[in-house]
């Protein structure tokens, strides 16, 4: 599968992405908001690529350089769960919003999900802005919803339905 909007593209990961994934995941902001291990090693990147059946590389549509990662996983009851990160040097350019639009709409139209959703921590304002710009609706705060890296955390639930498009 390849999705492309002319600026960014989503494609399967390959072994060639391992060095760029390893470099990007050295960023403490990625580790702060995701399940990415700390420290992040080349072995972590190789394991990620080997098991990336529902994750896609977010790349520049022309150069194919890695900008980030995005995944869409079944979450039960016809729902799809999206997660993403963007490399530091690619932030502030709309990369995450474009990737989220591409994958969420594909998930609703082609995968048959009745709903796609994502979670953000209340303090992760940049990710909340991405969700808003991609057309997601904030459904509210889920108190002590998830355990991330040994700590219970509140999460904001965001959703996109076919009727929102």
In words, what does this structure look like?
With 165 residues, the chain is an alpha+beta fold. The protein is built from five helices and eight strands. The mean pLDDT is 96.
Outline the secondary-structure elements.
Elements: E1 3-4, E2 8-11, H1 18-24, H2 28-33, H3 42-50, E3 55-60, E4 66-74, E5 79-86, H4 95-109, E6 115-120, H5 125-133, E7 137-148, E8 151-160
Parallel strand pairs: 5-6
Antiparallel strand pairs: 1-2, 2-3, 3-4, 4-5, 6-8, 7-8
Helix pairs in contact: 1-3
Described by strand count, sense and barrel closure, the largest sheet is: 8 strands, mixed
Percent of sequence in beta strands: 25-35%
Q: Spans of 5+ residues with little confidence (pLDDT < 50)?
A: none
Order of helices and strands: EEHHHEEEHEHEE
Strand arrangement, major sheet: 1-2-3-4-5-6-8-7
Number of helices: 5
Helix content bin = 25-40%
According to CATH, what is the topology? Aminopeptidase
- Using the alpha-carbon principal axes, give the shape: globular
Provide keyphrases for this structure.
165 residues, alpha+beta, Aminopeptidase, eight-stranded mixed β-sheet, 5 helices, 35% strand, globular
């Amino acid at each position: 599968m390849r999705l492309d909007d002319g600026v960014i593209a989503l494609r399967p990961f390959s072994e060639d992405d391992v060095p760029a994934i390893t470099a990007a995941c050295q960023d403490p902001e990625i580790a702060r908001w995701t399940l990415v291990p700390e420290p992040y090693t080349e072995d972590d990147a190789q394991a990620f690529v080997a098991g990336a059946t529902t994750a896609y590389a977010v790349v520049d549509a022309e150069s194919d350089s890695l900008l980030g990662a995005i995944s869409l996983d079944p979450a039960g009851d016809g729902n799809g769960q999206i997660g993403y990160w963007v490399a530091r040097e690619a932030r502030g350019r709309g990369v995450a919003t474009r990737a989220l639009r591409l994958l969420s709409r594909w998930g609703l139209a082609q995968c048959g999900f009745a709903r796609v959703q994502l979670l953000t921590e209340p303090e992760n304002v940049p990710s909340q802005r991405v969700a808003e710009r991609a057309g997601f609706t904030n459904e509210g705060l889920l108190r002590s919803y998830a355990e991330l890296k040994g700590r219970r955390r509140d999460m904001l639930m965001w959703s996109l339905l076919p009727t929102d498009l």
